[in-house]
Amino acid sequence: MGNEFDPDKPFATACDLQAAWRPLKPEEFARAEKLLSYAERRIRAMLPAGWQDDPSITSNLEMVTVESVRRQMASSACGLPVTQVSQAGGGYTASATLQNPAGDWYLKADEKEALGIGGCQVFSVAMGAVPDGRA
Prior knowledge:
The protein is mostly helical. It has one domain. The chain contains 5 helices and 2 strands, in the order ααααββα. Strands 1-2 form a two-stranded antiparallel ribbon. The protein is flat, with a radius of gyration of 22 Å.
């Protein structure tokens, strides 16, 4: 089957990032590949046990990897994206609040959920006698 997940392949490439976001300049490709590699290592470290066999996780790896790196790269592109802009008149005042000014890498809550990261794990511990009658 051609659509099976291969854990040895990268989660996403610079071409995937470009297809989902915007054309990358030639000098951005190397940075994109490096950031995608870093993001993949971070995501792999956070994934729950058995993730390779869970299609609900593996089907989201490319999207989450690309989106997290897109946010990181967008922060350094001419001050965008901004969350707030204000301007004034006679005193020539202008200001903007950047969404991710340091270009930090992070996952949003919905991305973590899509990858099965975080949340609670519920379990129980039998107290007293076990089912076969031993105490």
